[in-house]
Design goal:
This protein has four helices and no strands. The chain is mainly α and about 100 residues long. This is GTPB3 GTPase.
Length: about 100
């Protein structure tokens, strides 16, 4: 098993194994369980690796039905909307002072 905690989107102290569902080892390791839907995204958000707009972009990418939806979701995941919101927040803070 190779692990690079600095590149993990989740808690670097957690260990994640990618196993085939029919792997006989999967049912024999105490405490081993399948991930819940959205669990890795939630962990990444909680550990500050994704902001809310990027997490929503991932959700939108999974549900995209057209090429335009896919491109928009990718832009959101890459931080376009998050950066725009940060600029607005900065501007509003400056106006308020």
């Amino acid at each position: 098993i190779l692990a690079d905690p600095s590149s993990s989107l989740c808690d670097p102290e957690d260990l994640f194994l990618s196993l085939h569902p029919l792997c006989p080892v999967a049912g024999r390791v105490p405490g081993l369980r399948p991930a819940e839907p959205g669990e890795f995204t939630l962990r990444a958000f909680r550990h500050g690796k994704l902001d809310l707009t990027a997490a929503e972009g991932l959700r939108d990418l999974i549900g995209a039905q057209t090429e335009a939806q896919r491109r928009q979701a990718l832009r959101q995941m890459e931080g376009d909307l998050g950066r725009l919101c940060q600029r607005w927040s900065h501007t509003l803070t400056q106006v308020g002072t």
